[in-house]
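Hello support,

Our group uses your service weekly, and this is the first time we've seen a run hang past the timeout. The protein is Cobalamin biosynthesis protein CbiX. I'm not sure whether the cause is the sequence or the server load. Input pasted verbatim:
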Amino acid sequence: MQKAIVLFSHGSRDPLWRAPIEAVAVRIATQHPSRPVACAYLELCVPSLAEATQQLVTQGATHITVVPMFLGTGKHAREDLPVLLQELHAAHPGVQFHVQAAIGEDPRMTALMADIACEVPLD
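Update from on-call engineer: The timeout came from a worker crash unrelated to the input. Re-ran successfully.
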C-alpha cells in the first residue's frame, strides 16, 4: 500500500500565491520522505487535481488523501471537489481516496491562527 497526499487549493495567476501551499508540500516531503505529496489547483494554474493524481498513481500511489487547503468548506470544497472526486474514482478505480475537511476548519489550525493574530509585534 503506497499512501500519498494531494494538497488541493483554488489557484491563482500570481505565482507568489502558491508559495505557502508549496511550502507545506516541501515540509511534508522533508518530514515524511516516503510519503509522496503533490500540489493541485482548481483553476488558474497547474497541475489540476486530475494531473497531480495521475502523477502520484504513476509513482505507485494506491491510497490518496486529498487535503482541501481552504479556510472553510465553501462552494469549491462543497460542490466542485465532490465532482472532481467522482472523476478520479472513474479514472483510477484501483485507488482509494480520502478527503479531509477543509484545513482551516481543523481546531489545531484555528487555534494557531488565533495565536498568530494575538502576537505582540516586536518593534
